[in-house]
Amino acid sequence: MSDRIASHYSDNLHLADLIAKDLQAAGKDLNRLTTADLAMVDEFHIRGRKATLELAERMKLKADSHVLDIGSGLGGPARTLAEKYGCRVSGIDLTQAFCTAATAMSAWVGLGERVDFRQGDATSLPFADKQFDAAMTIHVAMNIAAKDKMYTEARRVLKPGGIFAVYDVLQGKGGDVLYPVPWARDPSISHLATPDEMKSLLSGAGFELLHIQDSTEESQRFFEQLTAQMAKTGASAVAWRFFLGDDFPVMARNQVRNVTERRIRTVSYFCVA
Ligand SMILES: C[S@@+](CC[C@H](N)C(=O)[O-])C[C@H]1O[C@@H](n2cnc3c(N)ncnc32)[C@H](O)[C@@H]1O
Hints:
By secondary structure, the chain is α/β, with parallel strands linked by helices. It is about 40% helix and about 20% strand. The protein has eleven helices and seven strands. Helix 7 (about 145-155) links the parallel strand 4 (about 130-140) and strand 5. Helix 4 (about 50-55) packs across helix 5 and helix 9 packs antiparallel against helix 11 (about 250-260). The chain is globular and about 45 Å long. The site of S-adenosylmethionine (SAM) has 24 residues, from helix 1 and helix 5.
């Protein structure tokens, strides 16, 4: 199952080279890249960098914080936090190709000293107890059936009082998800929790729930704008095609329906360990 999830995302260990070529073709100087230049590709979740910054605002981050990013993807959220707060961020992700690209891309923008990425599984974290000051996970649990293990592990590695911020896609009341979607081409690797299940999963892992934020309406607008942009400029406007492939436009159109018909919701949870 882990292999199938990783290969859904990418098997290409040269992903960073493809992204670099694309940036160059778009007129970017590779020696002067900024995190903003990467944001269209490396913030791989609904509502992009804005959503990452929104999460970070409630994480009580300081320059000496050490943050864990569970399911760190191409490393965009980790770099955004490291740049804005001066903190250190360690990312873990099932997909080796993403960890390799995340490491290369961090060096491009001079953040290689403050972020690190390693391959691993969210349900069995390779870290000691009470190691991190805060943790986040963005659009990852949709691929994980054993969410109880994932959240228990997050709590184990957090220091008491540390904030855990979760931003995920949940099952709505509007019916079954239409596939393909960016996290799965069919239901076999998709495991969405409902909002009620999320509350009991997080409290079952020992977290105290501080705040819940539903961003479904804004997510609907995000996909409407993305599909309108693709209709105007073609799918090549979306750099996620490098790993999601040629069916990305279909995924985006399905997401408009999934979110408009409330088959899915996007919700953030802020908890304390
Ligand atoms: C949609 S991407 C989100 C990446 C990143 N959080 C972001 O927002 O840019 C989902 C990520 O979850 C990772 N993932 C899925 N299942 C995982 C697991 N069991 N452990 C760690 N990472 C996992 C995938 O490899 C992929 O990188």
